[in-house]
Amino acid sequence: MKLTTAVLAAGAAVSLATAVVGAARLRQDAQHQAERNEATVAQNQLDWLTQMSPTPTSPSFGRPRTWTSRSTCSC
Asked: Is 73 within a domain?
């Protein structure tokens, strides 16, 4: 094998290895971003449920409305 062929082969091997490592890094970054998104959505849902739950400070917020027997219709 000539020296130039060996150098080109080594360069191609390094380039391939770099591409594989880069692809693995991109995949890992995408997976971590998906995990962060899932955690954020879960926190948003918990915050929303906390706001919707009835508490003593907000007696009518989040509770079903109760209807009175009085009719306001003048039909």
From this structure: no
pLDDT, one tens digit per residue, over 22-57 is 999 999 999 999 999 999 999 999 999 888 877 655
Report the SS3 class of residue 61.
coil
User: What's the total number of domains in the chain?
Assistant: 1
Could you identify the residue written with the tokens 């508490």?
Answer: 55
Spatial neighbors of 9 by CB under 8 A, at least 6 apart, are: 1
- Name the residue range of residue 42's domain: 27-51
* Interatomic CA distance for residues 72 and 67, integer angstroms: 12
Please tell me whether the overall predicted TM-score, pTM, comes out greater than 0.85 for this model: no
Q: Is 20 inside a domain boundary? A: no
